[in-house]
Amino acid sequence: PDAAGVMRPEQAGAAAGSRLGRVSRLVDPDDSVLVIVDVQEGFTDRVDPALGDGLVERIAFLALSARFCGVPVIATVERPDDWGGLHPGIAAAMGDVPALRKEVFGLADDPAVWPAVEATGRGTVVLTGLETDVCVAQSALGLLDRGRRVVVVEDAVASPGSAHAAGLDRMRLAGAVAVVTKQLHYEWMRTVDRSRRFGDAH
Questions:
Q1: What is the rounded distance in angstroms from the CA atom of residue 194 to the CA atom of residue 187?
Q2: pLDDT digits (tens, 9 = 90+) for 68-100
Q3: pTM of structure
Q4: Is 29 exposed, middle or buried (0-12, 13-18, 19+ CB in 10 A)?
Q5: How distant is the alpha carbon of residue 133 from its chain centre?
Q6: Half-sphere exposure of residue 107, counting CA atoms within 13 Å on the CB side?
Q7: In what order do the strands lie in the sheet containing 149-158?
Q8: pLDDT in tens, 164-178
Q9: C-alpha angle 32/149/10, rounded to 5°?
């Protein structure tokens, strides 16, 4: 850490990997927590159709994949009175897990959400949801500062217009790992047998 106690991106990645005694290049399900950021219809309706097509379905798929692999899943909602509750497609995949109300754009500084993430004991935080350049990006940066490894799922986050690409660039430059839904699913599954069992279950 520097004089202010903030870790550089490369230090953050090493710290997260130290939970297993090594830095794994693959995304380890036993070290992961999936966070679904603000998937609410007030936000999804703002996204360009080309980017939004299949977005909710991919995030819901990852929630099912996570639960199958024993990965904790946390969902947040921002001001549901303004933006609506958790999208029904996500709520169905979450099961009985309630969404947490988020009052800070970056979840690492939110008094309700950060303790829930920290309590999982997981070193790798996988981010999906909206919006890429605001809540997702600020969450990624804050989590990196707190020493977590951050994985952002590029095709499971969105923002209107050019803001989406800007948000992805910001996170990559800060040290977040970028994957797509298919990559993450198979890194969590890891074996043919587990992948087949997931397919049979869903």
A1: 11
A2: 999 999 999 999 999 999 999 999 999 888 999
A3: 0.88
A4: buried
A5: 14
A6: 35
A7: 100-102, 73-78, 32-37, 124-130, 149-158, 177-179
A8: 999 999 999 999 999
A9: 155
